[in-house]
């Protein structure tokens, strides 16, 4: 079985769905395909799909898959590593209105260079997809072990007041929250007493990682100005209601808005920029830099302590 997943972001990826639908129709793909298509307007004609899946169901299909095909979302790449599943990554591209920038292309190239994924950048050749699937079928997935998550957690426990009564986690659904949970679920990370979780979509269900209550802000990006205003106002009222002492975040924009308002109310803000941002800080990271008490990058070449940006480790 092939599991196709396009993530939770509020931008379409019709191009990839059409490509896979065509491959099934022409017999390039003969295995069963199950897809999580997210906010995509095109509806596949040749395989089963869901718009969104709760995490337990999403993980079920991921575990059952022989091969995963995914947009270049860091959460799916991390899950493929955890489950040791071969993954073919297809990055969203700005020129096709699939993302606000091309950081997914940069992510795919970085992880492909490290031998963690296979990547497809162009959809002109169905035979290339066939060859990629054949190569993927000969792989068992790449298992990685890293002390990076532990190092980040150790840094946080040394830098934060662990007696603070109201420590809030703020991260968008998908890869941003996945990264933060990898840090917080280490033995060192469990010393941080999380009281509340703030996220963008209600897709987690009852997960074993949950140690506090979830609050939903909604999704937005700079191409959805009305949603931005709505999330900005909701984050204002939520920060007023939760009154956090500390906020720990991995982004993206909805979480940055919450961090901003929490800082205005006196909270300490810790921002861990997503590992997906391989060549520069994220736009949200650049926005929050002036407000963050601690700003961490996950790539050593991006460390710049003169700009309040420090590297202590990465989740890989």
Structure write-up:
A 7-stranded parallel β-sheet has the order 9-8-7-10-11-12-13. A 6-stranded parallel β-sheet has the order 3-2-1-4-5-6. It has helices spanning 14-25, 55-64, 74-83, 103-113, 126-137, 148-159, 175-184, 225-242, 253-264, 283-288; strands spanning 2-5, 33-36, 48-50, 67-71, 87-90, 118-119, 167-171, 194-199, 213-216, 246-251, 268-272, 294-297, 310-311. With 316 residues, the chain is of the alpha/beta class. β11 (268-272), α10 (283-288) and β12 (294-297) form a beta-alpha-beta unit. 36% of the residues lie in helices and 17% in strands. The relative contact order is 0.12. The longest helix has 18 residues, at 225-242. α3 (74-83) crosses α7 and α8 packs across α9 (253-264).
Note poorly predicted spans.
none
Main-sheet strand order equals: 9-8-7-10-11-12-13
Shape: globular
Number of helical stretches of at least 4 residues: 10
Terminal residue distance: 27 Å
Please count the beta strands (DSSP E, at least 2 residues each): 13
Q: Which percent band covers the strand fraction? A: 15-25%
Output the helix-strand order: EHEEHEHEHEHHEHEEHEHEHEE
Global structural class: alpha/beta
Rg from C-alpha positions?
19 Å
Biggest β-sheet strands, sense, barrel: 7 strands, parallel
* Share of helix, binned: 25-40%
Please tell me the overall pLDDT. 90
């Amino acid at each position: 079985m092939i599991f196709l997943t396009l993530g939770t972001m509020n931008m379409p990826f019709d191009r990839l769905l059409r490509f896979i639908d065509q491959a099934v129709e022409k017999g390039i793909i003969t295995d069963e395909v199950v897809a999580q298509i997210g906010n995509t307007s095109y509806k596949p004609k040749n395989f089963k799909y869901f718009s969104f899946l709760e995490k337990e169901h999403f993980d079920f299909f991921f575990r059952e898959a022989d091969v995963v095909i995914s947009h270049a979302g860091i959460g799916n790449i991390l899950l493929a590593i955890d489950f040791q599943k071969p993954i073919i990554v297809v990055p969203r591209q700005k020129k096709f209105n699939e993302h606000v920038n091309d950081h997914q292309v940069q992510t795919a190239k970085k992880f492909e260079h490290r031998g963690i994924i296979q990547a497809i950048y162009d959809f002109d050749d169905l035979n290339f997809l066939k060859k990629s699937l054949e190569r993927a079928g000969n792989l068992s997935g790449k298992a990685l072990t890293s002390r990076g998550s532990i190092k980040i957690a150790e840094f946080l426990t040394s830098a934060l007041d662990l007696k603070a009564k109201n420590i809030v986690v703020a991260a968008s659904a998908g890869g941003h929250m996945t990264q933060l949970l990898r840090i917080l679920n280490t033995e060192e990370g469990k010393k941080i007493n999380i009281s509340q979780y703030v996220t963008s979509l209600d897709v987690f269900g009852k997960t074993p990682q949950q140690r506090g209550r979830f609050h939903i802000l909604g999704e937005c990006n700079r191409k959805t100005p009305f949603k931005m205003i709505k999330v900005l106002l909701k984050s204002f009222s939520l920060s007023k209601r939760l009154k956090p002492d500390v906020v720990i975040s991995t982004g993206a924009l909805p979480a940055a808005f919450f961090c901003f308002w929490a800082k205005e109310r006196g909270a300490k803000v810790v921002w861990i920029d997503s590992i997906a941002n391989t060549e520069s800080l994220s736009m949200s990271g650049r926005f929050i830099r002036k407000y963050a008490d601690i700003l961490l990058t996950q790539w050593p070449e991006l460390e710049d302590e003169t700009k309040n940006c420090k590297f202590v480790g990465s989740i890989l």
